[in-house]
Amino acid sequence: MAKDTPREHRLLHMAAAASVLTALMLIAAKTVAWLLTGSVSLLASLVDSVMDSLASLINFFAIRYSLVPADNEHRFGHGKAEALAGLGQALFIAASSLFLIHQSVLKLLEPSPIEQSGVGIAVMVFSIVLTFGLLLIQKYVVRETGSTAIEADSLHYLSDLAVNVGIIAVLALSQLGWLWLDGSVGLVIAIFILFSAWRIAWDACQLLLDREMPDDVRTRIAAIVSSHPQALGFHDLRTRQSGRTSFIQLHVDLDETLTLRQAHTLVCQIQDDIVSAFPNADVIIHQDPVAVGDRVPVEGD
């Protein structure tokens, strides 16, 4: 089984810790701003940050567990802990959205002026800068490790940027008498958060259900097998993702007159090429003997 490198471990720990620290800093700043302004939009952003912190903590421990090497009881490793973390995030996020919908409706029914909007705007600008810095870190870590948990966390923080910009507009326009805007934007944010929860939960469930990897992956594998003239074809290709490990299994048709050593050498070459194309892949190839004249078409032909 492919193993994560110490560098990948450090990157994942760094991203998880940065996410937790960012969420805690945003909670502190937004709590002060909400208490001073009474804005339901700011409350929505505060609740979102609280959910972020809980989700980030789940991520932190899930990633640590997912990095534990395979053992006798978990032969395929612990990578699915990341998908479970994503599912946990979705549940927390959905709960927060329902709370925000309730608060937003109350604000729409009884609109009230927003106090000290300048403080709220300053906090939102601070949130945007801090969130953007975290996203840069997460984007780099996802590119280097392919972590599904970090990617799910990053998607949620990315949505926060748009939310924060919207809240700045609400705080500014409320001073012009647009009191209804606060509750309306809060409601929009809540619905958007609920949609994000659904998307994260769907992706996590698909990983837990061992969904096939994208079609372009299968196409690349077919091209790799076809690049070896002695490979007469392949079939029964199965793929799945668990954490950062890709599991790839297939049957390759070989000339029945090849010696065991020749067949083994050829399959090892194909396996090495697949691993080169998909780092951290765990590849299993079964050899099927066929007559030279009975070439079996490659899957997708």
Automatic annotation (TrEMBL):
<feature type="transmembrane region" description="Helical">
    <location>
        <begin position="42"/>
        <end position="62"/>
    </location>
</feature>
<dbReference type="GO" id="GO:0005886">
    <property type="term" value="C:plasma membrane"/>
</dbReference>
<keyword id="KW-0472">Membrane</keyword>
<keyword id="KW-0410">Iron transport</keyword>
<feature type="transmembrane region" description="Helical">
    <location>
        <begin position="117"/>
        <end position="137"/>
    </location>
</feature>
<feature type="transmembrane region" description="Helical">
    <location>
        <begin position="184"/>
        <end position="202"/>
    </location>
</feature>
<dbReference type="InterPro" id="IPR036837">
    <property type="entry name" value="Cation_efflux_CTD_sf"/>
</dbReference>
<keyword id="KW-0406">Ion transport</keyword>
<feature type="domain" description="Cation efflux protein transmembrane">
    <location>
        <begin position="18"/>
        <end position="209"/>
    </location>
</feature>
<dbReference type="InterPro" id="IPR002524">
    <property type="entry name" value="Cation_efflux"/>
</dbReference>
<dbReference type="GO" id="GO:0015341">
    <property type="term" value="F:zinc efflux antiporter activity"/>
</dbReference>
<feature type="transmembrane region" description="Helical">
    <location>
        <begin position="12"/>
        <end position="36"/>
    </location>
</feature>
<keyword id="KW-1133">Transmembrane helix</keyword>
<dbReference type="Pfam" id="PF16916">
    <property type="entry name" value="ZT_dimer"/>
</dbReference>
<feature type="transmembrane region" description="Helical">
    <location>
        <begin position="83"/>
        <end position="105"/>
    </location>
</feature>
<protein>
    <recommendedName>
        <fullName>Cation-efflux pump FieF</fullName>
    </recommendedName>
</protein>
<keyword id="KW-0812">Transmembrane</keyword>
<feature type="domain" description="Cation efflux protein cytoplasmic">
    <location>
        <begin position="214"/>
        <end position="289"/>
    </location>
</feature>
<dbReference type="Pfam" id="PF01545">
    <property type="entry name" value="Cation_efflux"/>
</dbReference>
<dbReference type="InterPro" id="IPR058533">
    <property type="entry name" value="Cation_efflux_TM"/>
</dbReference>
<comment type="similarity">
    <text>Belongs to the cation diffusion facilitator (CDF) transporter (TC 2.A.4) family. FieF subfamily.</text>
</comment>
<keyword id="KW-0408">Iron</keyword>
<keyword id="KW-1003">Cell membrane</keyword>
<comment type="subunit">
    <text>Homodimer. The subunits are held together in a parallel orientation through zinc binding at the interface of the cytoplasmic domains.</text>
</comment>
<dbReference type="GO" id="GO:0006882">
    <property type="term" value="P:intracellular zinc ion homeostasis"/>
</dbReference>
<dbReference type="GO" id="GO:0015086">
    <property type="term" value="F:cadmium ion transmembrane transporter activity"/>
</dbReference>
<dbReference type="GO" id="GO:0015093">
    <property type="term" value="F:ferrous iron transmembrane transporter activity"/>
</dbReference>
<dbReference type="InterPro" id="IPR027470">
    <property type="entry name" value="Cation_efflux_CTD"/>
</dbReference>
<keyword id="KW-0813">Transport</keyword>
<keyword id="KW-0864">Zinc transport</keyword>
<feature type="transmembrane region" description="Helical">
    <location>
        <begin position="157"/>
        <end position="178"/>
    </location>
</feature>
<dbReference type="InterPro" id="IPR050291">
    <property type="entry name" value="CDF_Transporter"/>
</dbReference>
<keyword id="KW-0862">Zinc</keyword>
<dbReference type="InterPro" id="IPR027469">
    <property type="entry name" value="Cation_efflux_TMD_sf"/>
</dbReference>
